[in-house]
Write a structure and sequence with these properties.
It is a single chain. The radius of gyration is 21 Å and the shape is globular. The chain has eight helices and nine strands. It is of the alpha/beta class. Helix 3 packs across helix 4, helix 4 packs across helix 5 and helix 5 runs parallel beside helix 6. A six-stranded mixed sheet has the order 5-6-7-3-8-9, with helices on both faces.
Length: 250
């Protein structure tokens, strides 16, 4: 089956509060005093005018400073953020490896969270039941499978989240540089597993500050700055552009 991602004129807007995020109590006090609302809010565009066209075999590296819009772009492709303008169209089973632990229920057990994450990612319950032993084994959490997540360390929760996503065989993989959690042996094992997923996925969008990974994994790259694509080309050229025009201008 072929897969594709088509992004046309995509913009994502957020609300910024001037004077701090408002509270109901503060608003009521201001109204009673006749001062009107103390806090003002404005909209700003986190990304603007993004166009992408990815097909089978594409591995897109996304390069940029912190706050440039890399994670926002991938969350928009994943459907987490709704477009202010433009469209996102895709075909294929998408697995976002973005913020590890998103969607977990801290008061449910490790096993229950495996099924919960599967449901969020539209994986049939029967498939999750088949994968459960492998997920527990890879995450090294077999002996904690009936423990609530609230009793686990952040590293253990990251291991669980990564392990769930790593067995879902995506057509489209969205990968943020999300983990360095856990001991060195698990990080090494997870990186090897991640390379396997990248190899078998039809399309990969990959955000990383590690230039060697971008060069080794990707066949295309873009540079984001202030939410806009300012360069698009091969990974080597994109990295050179970023270093010469963004990093050196600090």
């Amino acid at each position: 089956m072929s897969a594709f991602i088509q992004v046309e004129n995509l913009s994502i807007e957020f609300v910024k509060y001037l004077g701090g995020e408002p509270s109901l109590k503060a608003d009521m006090i201001s109204i009673l005093k006749g001062c009107g609302q103390k806090n003002r809010k404005i909209k700003f565009r986190a990304i603007s005018g993004i166009n992408l066209d990815l097909a089978n075999g594409d591995r897109l590296g996304i390069i940029g400073r912190n706050g440039a819009g890399k994670s926002t772009l991938m969350k928009a492709v994943a459907g987490i953020y709704a477009p202010a303008t433009g469209t996102v169209r895709l075909k294929g089973k998408l697995v976002p490896l973005l913020e590890l632990g998103t969607g977990f229920d801290q008061f449910s057990s490790v096993r229950q969270n495996i099924y919960l994450n599967g449901a969020i990612l539209n994986i049939p319950k029967e498939k999750i039941a088949e994968l459960e032993p492998m997920i527990l084994n890879f995450s090294e959490l077999e002996e904690f499978k009936d423990q609530p997540l609230s009793g686990l360390s952040s590293g253990m929760r990251s291991r669980l989240s990564f392990s769930i996503a790593s067995f879902l065989e995506p057509d489209i993989l969205l990968l943020d540089e999300v983990f360095a959690a856990g001991d060195k042996s698990f990080v090494k094992k997870a990186r090897l597993r991640m390379l396997e997923i990248i190899e078998t996925s039809k399309i990969v969008m990959f955000s990383s500050h590690q230039e060697s990974l971008i060069l080794n994994v990707c066949n295309k790259a873009i540079v984001l700055e202030k939410g806009e694509i300012i360069f698009s080309g091969d990974p080597g050229s994109a990295i050179n552009y970023y270093n010469n025009n963004i990093v050196s201008s600090k």
